[in-house]
Amino acid sequence: MKRQSSTNINESDHNPCGLLWVKIENSNDINNQAFKIEVSENDTVDDLKDKILERLNNTRWKSMNDNASISLGVYTISASTSIPQQSNYLQQNHSIDVDSLNSPVDIIPNLFQKQSVIASAASGTTSATMPPDSSILTPQPSIVLSKLSTSIPINTNNTNGHPNNMISSMSPKTFNNIAHEEHVNYIETSPQRACSTSPKLISVPKASIVRPSSVTLSQATTNNNNNNSTSLPHLSNYISTNNRAYTQARLSPNDFTHQLSQVQQKHARNIEGLRYSTELVNRTNLTYRVIFQPDELAKNIRHHLFNNKQTASDPIFIFSNSTLSLERGINSISNSNTKTEKPLLSLKPIDVTNNYMHIGRTITPIEIGESSENPYHVDVNANNGDDDNENEVQTSSPNEFKTYKLITNEKQLKEASDLLSNEDQVEGMETSPKQAILLLPKGYVGDHHNGVGSHSLNEELGRSYENQKDIQEAITSQLNTTKSHSSTSSTENLPKSLEVSLQGSDTTAFIQQHHHVPLNEQEVGLIDPMIENEWHKKTAHTHNDQSQDQKQQGTEKTDSQSSTEGDSPVTKPHVRILPKDRPIPHPIRAHPKSATSSSSAQKSTSERVFPKINVLIVEDNVINQAILGSFLRKHKISYKVANNGKEAVDIWKEGGLHLIFMDLQLPVLSGIEAAKQIRNCEKEQKKGTSNGSGSPPVIIVALTASNSIEDKRNALISGCNDYLTKPVNLHWLSKKITEWGCMQALIDFDSWKQGQSRMTDSFLNKVPKKVKMGVIS
Amino acid sequence: MIEPMPVEIINWGILNEIISMDEDDPDFSKGLIIQFIDQAETTFGEMDEQLNNNKDLSELEKLGHFLKGSSAALGLQRIAWSCERIQNLGRKAEKSFPSKEQLLDTLPADTELTDSDKANYDKSNSGVPPTTDDDDLYLFLIKRALAQARLEFQVARRELSTYYNEVL
Questions:
Q1: Looking at residue B156, which CATH number applies to its domain?
Q2: Is residue A361 a contact partner of residue A383, using CB atoms and an 8 Å limit?
Q3: pLDDT for residue B146 is more than 90
Q4: Number of helical H runs and strand E runs in chain A
């Protein structure tokens, strides 16, 4: 809290000179709207980026981007230039490259390339503008060449330009700029694709007309160069290597085959006097992306580009690597009017809560419709296919027609990525993140999941369908365990059709909690299409012992947990005895020997799936508040803070909380008392609502500073579901949050609420006495 | 039975988790440490106040608990240990405190104590314990525990200053 204000202080150190509207480019988040960034007198584009990142600090977008991966710019549409002419031109350019460089590497056999050219920063004093006229934009190279004493063959077909201007602007400065080229090349070809690095370098697309208007003379030089008239060896070198970079990074056949919607608005950008680079993003209508150099002053952009009058409808776009890499997937880059509407399925978690999913055999269409009664209707008739098959998934979502591969484990991911990168090499296209569909619980907003651990889901689903009996046993023992030890781990099994009676609200919480516990972080993210017969086959034939292990785990767990709890977690917070073969919410370093299935999961600790939950931290010590708060922020979990038990109860009454971390020793009202009050209120609420449609009980996790058994017992008796011993191990906590949060995510499933007789609060009230689980003894 | 004093001044396993959050939030851990230093000094002062004037054991228990929470969360385990002693002495759950020789022995061999450290430590960590079994005994023990906590605080502060390469 204290720290958040610091940046504001920094900003106020400068004189704000205005606002800039910026908008994330190509995001299909409906919440993506232009927003204002305050611009100080001396802010550079780089500073702007920092501010933007700061502003978006708590978003998912931020988690995928940093200063190096984003750039600021606008789109501009060039005036008409015929493609044949360009092709012609490009061809010529290639010949020059060949001759001048003698380097096959630099010859790009792709006619649809973009050229990048350097120019010095326009002084702004030369006000001559260059009309979008090809005769002007195809300059006279021969003169340039002679002046520059180069001996490179020149194609004179396009030499109608303004050589004099060009020469005059070929100042030493220009050559200094050239000296930077190699760095630029390097960086632009790097995966991070910093859009802008070297100051004063302007790389311009090859297409002959870059700007519809207002090109200064020195920029005309640029165009001249661009148009192949310059044959300086190093320039050519630059151009061609840069071509490669761009070709790989940006251009694909899709860019050209896809006809954009007609240019609705030709931005006649006045980019004179700004330092920028451009990229051709759509050949058909010559859409360019103008990317500002990082050292360009923001106020200049405001001034030149918008004449200090910018509106929200005409924002500066924030380009990022992650969105760039998607463009192939969506087949196009569009102009500024349409691009933000483009849905980007590939990297976007899909909310499948209300969707109907049908997974068949190896080729599994997934239908995403508007309504269904079942959140995951999984057709598990699939009987064959092995792990190595990539399952094709078709979506019938209105916006998505591409075929995506459903990648469900690391192996598949690797294969798919190898495959795709091979393709890319052939086609000379970029190799960057591929599309994947992640099936996630409702409201999921966490980080991307890399697909490990889906196997255990298979196993669980398989078990849940065919081995319900086993599962019941497992759950029973799990609940037993829970009752006596307050579970510290997720279970192995997914209870699909258990019925549990309601025996008081305290136990309700337990039941609900552990009803849903089975999905842990590795499992919630993905559904493997070849769900289960296959798994059963495998288990039956090759992993017999493993499956037996799993069947026994319920009982093993009881033992192992008691031993775990028997240790003193306070004095040795990081030393926990872990049972084997158990995907555990425990810190990595405490994981002595993980089973093969969970070892891969361990690698992905950093890529967690955190469900969208609201957490309340009840702590009187600001330092502990700050630590927990920072931890939650890091994982994009929203949270509130209460300083004592009374505040906690008050905040809880406001509603919307899923999880409470409750310190027990608190001023005013102790954590124990607060937990009791909350549970009592829940009871009353439940009575009040006749049909039990009240919100599910909040999960209360006690934070105990001592490890005395009595404290823990008191915590559980008072209505806490679980406890953590302080100092909280953050690795462990993240696992626990996932576990708790997943439970909540499942509890909130709409359809689960709507009378699936199996689970959640509705049945708990409707069928109160139906079931005996020897659990709650 | 009193738990043994941890040997390492800082549990880096714990502190590193917090330091790892600096990635998202530069200087986060250092800010916390600075905040803790303020908090510890304030709390020590409040403990002094209780020891000298109010002599309220339950307040001392709360103060010990409070500082134990944050010091433990930062991995400053020897401070946390001392605070836990204060907490337990405050509620009379323990009725002894290890001798200062024992405790000094547990310090890492390379720990350097300044003269003022030693002077302060000795000054408030001396005297003959009351023979009675009333609050005076616990207040006396808490006073010693507080001296220990202060010493540990100075040692930890120095180690942290070294780590952050800055006088904290």
A1: 1.20.120.160
A2: yes
A3: yes
A4: 30, 15
Over residues A353-380, the pLDDT tens digits come to 333 333 333 333 444 443 334 434 333 3
Q: How far apart are the first and last CA of chain A?
A: 45
Which among B21, B86, B87, B91 is the top mutation candidate for probing chain A, defined by the most A β-carbons within 10 Å of its own β-carbon? B21
In a domain, B5, yes or no: no
Q: pTM of the entire structure?
A: 0.40
Asked if pLDDT for residue B91 goes beyond 60, the answer is yes
Q: A131-153: b or e for each residue (b if 16 or more CB lie within 10 Å)?
A: ebebebbbbbbebbbeebebebe
Place A419 in a pLDDT band, splitting at 50, 70 and 90: low
List of chain A residues whose C-beta atoms are within 8 Å of the C-beta of residue B21: 630-631, 634
Do the chains contact at B36 and A2, CB–CB below 8 Å? no
- Residue B10 tokens read as 């800082």
Nearest-neighbour CA in chain B from A146: distance (Å): 54
- Establish if B53 belongs to a structural domain: yes
- Residue A353 identity (one-letter amino acid): T
Domain containing residue B146: 27-164
Pure H helices in chain B: 12-19, 28-49, 57-73, 77-90, 100-106, 115-124, 135-164
- Let me know the angle formed at the C-alpha of A635 by A629 and A640, rounded to the nearest 5 degrees: 35
Q: Which segments of A269-368 are extended strands (E)?
A: 276-282, 287-292, 316-320, 350-351
pLDDT tens, A629-655? Answer: 988 888 888 899 999 999 999 999 988
CB A507 within 8 A of CB A716: no
In 3D space, the residue among A181, A78, A47, A51 whose CA is nearest the CA of residue A120 turns out to be A181
Confidence grade of residue A211 (pLDDT, cut at 50, 70, 90): very low
Q: Is there a domain that residue B10 lies in?
A: no
Candidate from B62, B65, B70 with C-beta closest to A623: B70
Query: CB contact, 8 Å: B33 with chain A?
Result: no
Average pLDDT over residues A390-394: 40
Q: What is the secondary structure of A504-554 as a DSSP string?
A: -HHHHHHHHHHHHTT--HHHHT---SS-SHHHHHHHHHT-HHHHHHHHHHH
Tokens encoding A152: 């490179």
- Interface contacts (A, B; CB < 8 Å): 71
Comparing A53 with B53, the larger pLDDT belongs to B53
Residue of A nearest to B78 (CA): A571
| Distance of alpha carbon A432 from alpha carbon A426, whole angstroms | 14
Task: List the A659-663 sheet strands across, edge first.
Answer: A638-642, A614-618, A659-663, A699-704, A722-725
How far off is chain A from B23, nearest CA to CA, in Å? 10
A655: region left, alpha or beta (phi > 0 left; psi from -120 to 50 alpha): left
pLDDT at A694: 59
Residue from B25, B63, B77, B84 whose CB has the most chain A CBs within 10 Å, to mutate? B25
Q: For chain B, how many structural domains are there in total?
A: 1
pLDDT at A71 > cutoff 70? yes
Residue A397 neighbours by CB distance under 10 Å: 16
**B133 in a structural domain:** yes
* pLDDT over 90 at A124, yes or no: no
Would you state the structure tokens that stand for residue A470, as one six-digit string? Answer: 């086993």
- Closest residue on chain A to B43 (Cα): A621
Nearest CA in chain A to B31: A3
- Residue A19's beta-bridge partner residues? A38
A73 beta partners: A291, A317
Q: How far is CA A654 from CA A647, A657, A720, in A?
A: 11, 8, 19
Task: Single out the residue of B124, B130, B117 nearest to residue B47, CA to CA.
Answer: B124
Residue A704: its pLDDT value, please? 80
Stretch among A82-91, A716-725, B78-87 having the lowest mean pLDDT:
A82-91
